[in-house]
Amino acid sequence: MLNPRPIKQMEKQPSSLLWHGVFVLMLLLAVFGIYKAVQSVDYTWRWERIPQYIVYQAQQNSYAEFDGTVVAENGALVLQDDLDATHRQTIAATGSNLSEGDTVFRGDVLDTQLKWTPGPIAFGIWVTIKLSLVAGIFAILLGTLAGLARLSPNPALRNLAGCYVELIRGTPLLVQIFIVYFFIGTVLNLDRFTAGVAALAVFTGAYVAEIVRAGIDSIHKGQMEAGRSLGLTSAQTMRYIILPQAFKRVLPPLAGQFINLIKDSSLVSVISITDLTKAGREVVSSTFSPFEVWFTVALLYLVLTGTLSFLVRRLEVKYARSN
Hints:
- By secondary structure, this protein is an alpha+beta fold.
- The strands form 2 sheets. A 4-stranded antiparallel beta sheet has the order 4-3-2-5, with no helix packed on it. A two-stranded antiparallel ribbon has the order 1-6.
- The model has no long low-confidence stretch (mean pLDDT 87).
């Protein structure tokens, strides 16, 4: 008679609620630690100064284009030209101290309106986004070509791409920005923005090249042979079969590289491009509130990189469903 095998009871896994509680507790401890650190610093916080450097209401004046008299027309005030009664200029219903019968001379203020205007920090965000987007597009093109060249059977292309990758990855980005702007930019007469885009694109392209190369290498060689057996050329097989599969695999590391690109774009402030970092320095010099400004700048960078991470996760889910 066979002895029955002992039945091992499965270990009970802690509930997800418990682990969520641990996570919340860790967050509370982190917040408490930050609070105690803030209390230990002899510093007067002035957060009310920050919003006006992000967006503010600016006065926009409307000026008289000619000499005339204020008249009423259909319940509204208009400025009528003294020389030509048919020539009129509308006066806003609000923001004006004029009344019917007033005489106005050319260049006088007719009305004043409050208009929401982006501050230096908002302008810096826009420059950072534009800089990162343009540099990212060129980095993808350059990196894809360099990655394909790294796998080329042509020794000249392979060695050239290898030298590019090793040279760029082996030197600091800050040094490359200086070289591109002060040397190459002077020779080619490049403006600051173009030089910044070029330096970031070349730097990021080297890392994209290695990501693309690794992604293509991860695809089984039988895929190329299958494409060739169907009558496709090597280029067509790479374009329609290999690259689409490789792109799905390299999407996470590519996303990480472009997150680094957004953060690395802060270095272009050394060549006087008013990105988010340089805008933060300018605000600090005018407000003398370094902690508030740099915490705000860090939060805005976090929003940019977090948004990119969210979009990439959505792409990953989309491609996972398509499989």
